[in-house]
Amino acid sequence: MEDRPPGVSSRKWRYQIRPERCPICGKGHPFKAELNKHIASRHPERAAEYKVSTARRICEWCGRSYARKDHLTRHLTRKHGRQKTRTRPARAARGGGFAR
Ligand SMILES: [Zn+2]
Ligand SMILES: [Zn+2]
């Protein structure tokens, strides 16, 4: 791996050198997770070989399936006007006058 110049964060550096290369087509990715996503979507027939999960996300409203969660989320938002998951639980506003 190339040396990281001073002043460049390791995250930024990985985005520049993209050290995780796809073993099938050679495309570089900054992180292993990105590479796995790439394999699942571009080379699903080889995914098992590299222990990459290709479990597809199914839209519970119309049954369309997507290889990537973010694609399903986008579909849900655009076509059905909703989010499948609420990532952040609603939290009471701080300083709302309820002194303890
Ligand atoms: Zn590839
Ligand atoms: Zn749908």
From TrEMBL:
Signal peptide: none annotated. GO terms for molecular function: zinc ion binding. Keywords: Metal-binding, Zinc, Zinc-finger. Residues 73-91 have a biased composition (Basic residues). Residues 73-100 are annotated as: Disordered. Gene3D superfamilies: Classic Zinc Finger. Transmembrane segments: none annotated. Residues 57-85 form the C2H2-type domain. SUPFAM superfamilies: beta-beta-alpha zinc fingers. This is C2H2-type domain-containing protein. It comes from Thermothielavioides terrestris (strain ATCC 38088 / NRRL 8126) (Thielavia terrestris).
